[in-house]
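Ex. 9. Protein: ABC transporter permease.
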Amino acid sequence: MLTNTRPTATPTEGADQKRPEPSSSATRPEAPARRRSSSTSLWTTTALSLWLVYPVIVVLLPDAGLLRRAPTTPLTVLAGTWLVVLTAWTFCAWRRPASAAASSLAHYLPWINAAGAWFIVWQLTTSKLGLLAPPYFAAPEVLIASFAGDWRLLLSCLGASALLFVIGYTAGSVLGFFTGLLMGWSRRADYWLHPLLQTIGPVPAASLLPLALLLLPTTYASAAFIVGFGAWFPMATMTRAGVRSVRSDYIDMARTLGADELFLIRRVAVPSALPDMLTGLFTGLGTSLAALMTAELTGVDKGLAWYINWVKGWADYPRMYVGLIILVAFCRTLMVLLFKIRSSLLAWQQNLVRW
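Predicted structure tokens for ABC transporter permease:
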């Protein structure tokens, strides 16, 4: 009879064997957190230094060609206020490193540093050293003074541009949605409409302004028409592509369960084409804004583009720059709002597509 002669290890022998030492990353799981905290502290210190140096430059350094010190400007108060806000923000992040304030601060600190460096260079090259001479270039405080003296007209022009854009963009997007849906769902409609879409759609919206002024009763309606035309073509194209790309087995399965045509359109075709439709909205946003700028130069008597062209005619470049800044802020607001809508409607895609 065979017996197990396999030697067994004694407790002493097992104790004498050396176990592998854990790695340094296993013993120090907080190392990445410490590195992130150190990087955040460095960025924060740099930001505080830059935004502390900026008001000192504005107040203490003399202007170009002047022997006296520059007076305190509203921009100094603005920089001081932002410095206080940044300090309070940093204090909240320091007291609670895992809070939303800390993560938000870590995300925006590079932009805060870039803005501080940009304002210092801007101030030095314009009013302090005179490298960029007026009237074509202006210091930050000059732009603030121009906005303070003309803010009522600027807000009125912003409201007029926003209203014209909303009317034209909404009408063009809705018309483009129904046009694309009709072409994507009906082959007969696609036969007749798609060649027209390919022929008329690529025409720049601004080139149709003389025809719109001739056919429509008012200049405001003509301006709204070309803004809407800029949104109509990309919306119709992308909606058609999205509807035609719906999988046929989805439609066949719904029809097997008794779905009618209206149900197939509302619950199958439109939800499946929603990502393409939102792409059409993004594309139409840019073309509609370009058409808006052209329309305001000839079709309306108030708006941001009208204001920029008006002050440029008087060679008032600081007010022109203020109008451009407000126009950029308006366009960015529309883009961010559209991204929010897209994130809400396509929440189910967040783990599938990066956007």
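Check your answer against this statement. The CA atoms of residues 56 and 76 lie 8 Å apart.
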